Amino acid sequence: MAEFISAMADQEYAPATLGRMLAAICSIHRLGGQQSPEDTAARAVIKSYRNERAAAGISNASRRAAALSMRQLRELVAACEIPTKPGGPPRRQMPVARDRLLLVLGWAMMARRGELHALDLGDVTEVENGLEVMVRRSKTDQSAHGHLVAIPYGRDPLTCPVRLWRTWTNLLAAKEITPGAVFRRIHLSGRVGDRLSDQGISNIVRDITERAGLGEAGIRPHSLRAGGATGAYLGGADPILIGRHGRWRDGSRTVLGYIRDIDRWTHNPMNNTGHSLLTAQSRSRCNTRHGRLRLIMPGRRHVGVCFVGDSDRVAQEGGGSRD
Known about the structure:
The chain is of the alpha+beta class. It contains eleven helices and nine strands. The strands form three sheets. It has a four-stranded antiparallel beta sheet with strand order 6-7-8-9, with no helix packed on it. Helix 2 (about 15-30) runs antiparallel to helix 3 (about 40-55), helix 4 packs antiparallel against helix 5 and helix 9 crosses helix 11 (about 255-265). The protein is globular. It starts with a helix and ends in a 6-residue tail after the last strand. Mean pLDDT is about 85; it is low at about 275-323.
C-alpha cells in the first residue's frame, strides 16, 4: 500500500486524491469480505508528501468550484442568447430555453451534475407553490429511495425556475416529446436528440460562462450546487434545511465549508472593532485634500488619514480636542 501511494505521489496527484485512493482500496476489500489492508505506512507517506508540497510552496487545499452568486447567475442567463461564435447568427429559441432552465433549476435544486443528467420529465410536477422534483438517486442515496425537492417561484421571471420549466416543456410538447429526459441534445439543424451527457452539461456551462465574460471566475457545473447553498444561507436559511434541500447528510462538512466561506467576511470578528476606520458606522463625513482621505469623526477633531487609492494604509493623526 505504501509503495503504491508513493508511486502515485511521484505522478503528482494531490494528497486529497491519494487519500481517496486509499479509502477506495479499503472499501473494496471490505465489500469483498476481506480484511482491510494495513494503511498506517501509506498514510504516513501521504502526510510526508503533503509536508513536501507545502515546503515547496504548493497548496494542498482542495480545489473547489466557485460558488455561483445570484448576480452571476443572472449574467449567465442573459448570456444564453449571445451567439456561440462572434458575429454568428442569433441562437435558436430551444437551446436558449434549455440552457436557461439548466442553469436556474440546477441552482435552485443545488443539483449535482449527475442529477441533472438523470432527470426525466416525469420526475417534475408543477404544483400550486412551484415545482416538485423527484431526485430518484443521488450520491447520498445509493439505494434509490428518492428525494422530493420543492422549488418555489422566483421573483424575477428571467430566473424563475417555474416559468422557465413551462417554456421548455411547451417547446418539447410542440415537438411531441413528453416522456424521457428533461435535458437533451439539440442539433444544429434544430432536431432534438437524446439525453445530454454529463460532459455535455459541463460544455454548456463552460461555453455560457465564456460568452458572459466570466471565464476567469472558476465557474463549473458544481458552481450551481455551491451557489444555491451559499445563496440560501445569505438569505437566512437554516444550515440544516440547506443540507437537506441539497441532499447532503446532516452535519456535512461540505455545507459547513460553504458557510465558513461566507462567515469569513459577514461574521468576521474584526468587523465592528476599531481596527478599520473606513466603515459606514464610524464616518460621518470624508473629503480629499492633497491626495489624502480625511475622516472627520463625530464630535471630535481626531482625524483618521489614509492615502487615496491605498485604503489598507490607515494611520491616525493628532489627538485633538473635542469641539
